[in-house]
Design goal:
globular; 145 residues; 3 strands; Arc Repressor Mutant, subunit A; three-stranded mixed beta sheet
Length: 145
């Protein structure tokens, strides 16, 4: 791996809470890339690119505001420093669901409400994984001197 790639990986990893390895998660689930973006004209916080099997993260998002929205929507307290993790896990939920669909990656918008269902499922996946990560982190914190 080149020093530039290592520097980029270090920059991406620095966005996540200590103890969470974004590279390990990417490798475990077959995510081929993670890209930092400004969110485009829609100013989104994160997105999944099914053609490239890549997750895009906007590091410049309003983490205070998004932490409040995520916390209210999901009934789980999410700190501003955990928003990038939540966004990554949400997009990972999209990645896993699309890979599971008989190998067909379909990013087309669907008026039938399937996209709302997929987004809800991705949010539930993020919630489950986030709470598991938090429990693991709390156990590790208790065991540390």
């Amino acid at each position: 791996m080149s020093s530039t790639a290592l520097e980029r990986l270090g920059m991406v990893q620095s966005l996540f809470p200590p103890g969470f390895s974004v590279l390990a998660e990417m490798l475990r689930h077959g995510v081929k890339a993670i890209r930092l973006t400004d969110g485009g004209f829609l100013r989104y916080s994160a997105a999944y690119d099914p053609e490239r099997q890549a997750i895009e993260i906007n590091p410049n998002l309003d983490r205070e505001r998004l932490a409040a929205v995520i916390s209210e929507r999901n009934g789980v307290r999410v700190e501003p420093g955990e928003v990038i993790l939540w966004a990554f896990l949400h997009e990972l939920g999209h990645h896993k669901r699309r890979r599971a669909r008989s190998g067909v990656l379909n990013a087309a918008l669907n008026p039938s409400g399937e996209n709302q269902l997929e987004d809800w499922l991705a949010e539930q996946y993020a919630r489950k994984r986030f709470l598991a990560w938090r429990r693991t982190r709390q156990r590790t914190d208790k065991e540390s001197p």
